[in-house]
Amino acid sequence: DNKNQTTLANVTIKKMISHLVAIEPKKLSHKIILAQISLGTRLIEILNKNVSVFKIDPNNSTNIIQTGVAKSTDERQISKPTIVISPMDFMNLMVEIRQITDADSTKNNVYINNKYNARVNDEIRRIFLKFKIPKKLQSSHGLRKIWVNYSYCYHAPQGMSLTSWITDMLGHKDGILSTAANHYSTVHIKTVAEPVVETVVEPVVEKTVKQMNLAEKYEYIERLVARGFSSYTEFQRLGITTYMLSKYKRSKGITGPL
C-alpha cells in the first residue's frame, strides 16, 4: 500500500459530480471542471482543440475516444470511459467550452493554460472544501487522479492491474510509466453500499424557463441549438414556446430554420 494514499468514498465523488451537474453550470470554470473529472483529462486537453479532440467511441457507447494528448507529439487515440455523466453529456459540455476557448486556439499552450488555470483551480478548491476532499487533491491535477482510480473500480476489465489501467488511460510516454503509475495510484476509492441517485444532465424544465429573464432565455436557446436541437416541436418539449422562439429569431435576424 502507498503510505501517502488518500481514501475517498465512491458516493462522495458521485455526489460532487452530481452537484456540478445539478447547478446547470453557467460558469466556464464549472464546465471545465465537470469535463475534466468525468474523463480524466489535462486542463489544456479540454481547452485547446489543437491538442485533443473528442468523439463518442462507435464501438463502445460508454466511452469517448480522445485523439491527441498533451506532452506527446503523436496523435495517439485513447478510448476512455466517462464517470457519472454520459458520453453524450460530455460531448455537449465540450461544445459549450470550445465555443469560448477556440478563440485562443492560435495561441501557445502556456498562454492558454495561464489564462484559465488560476480560476479553475480556485473553483476546484471551493467545491472540494464543500465535500471535504483533502487539500492534496484540490487542483486540476487532482481531478485526473480521482478519475483514473474511480474509473478503474467501475470500468477496468476483470483481472487488469491498476498500474496497467493508469498507463493505458492517461497516455504517458513509455519512459515514465512506472513513475506515473506510482504517482496516480495515491488515491483509493472506497466502495460504500449506499443508494445514490445519480443526476443526469437534462435540459432545463419549463418551470425554470418561465423564471428566466429574456437574455437568459436567449442564451438557453443558443445552448440548445449548439446541442443540435432545431425543430419547433423539440423546443416546445424543452419549455421554449413558439412565440419565444420566433421572438429570438427576429432579434437575431434569422429568417430561415435554425
What does this structure look like?
- With 258 residues, the chain is mainly α.
- 53% of the residues lie in helices and 9% in strands.
- It has 12 helices and 5 strands.
- The chain has a 3-stranded antiparallel beta sheet.
- Strand 2 (53-56) and strand 3 (63-67) form a beta hairpin.
- Helix 2 (28-39) packs across helix 4 (87-101), helix 2 crosses helix 5 and helix 7 packs across helix 8 (177-184).
- It is globular and about 60 Å long.
Helix-strand layout with pairing:
Elements lengths: L5 E4 H13 L5 H12 L3 H5 L5 E4 L6 E5 L9 E5 L5 H15 L7 H22 L9 H16 L6 H9 L6 H8 L2 E4 L15 H6 L2 H13 L5 H6 L4 H11 L6
Parallel strand pairs: 1-5
Antiparallel strand pairs: 2-3, 3-4
Helix pairs in contact: 2-4, 2-5, 2-6, 7-8
Give the low-pLDDT segments. 196-207
Residues in β-strands, percent: 5-15%
* Major beta sheet summary: 3 strands, antiparallel
Radius of gyration: 20 Å
Q: How many strand elements?
A: 5
> Considering DSSP H and I runs of 4 or more, what fraction of the residues is helical?
40-55%
Order of helices and strands: EHHHEEEHHHHHEHHHH
What is the count of DSSP helices, taking H or I runs of 4+ residues? 12
- Gross morphology: globular
Helices and strands: which structural class? mainly alpha
Mean pLDDT across all amino acids: 84
Give the strand line-up of the largest sheet: 2-3-4
| Alpha carbon gap, first and last residue | 56 Å
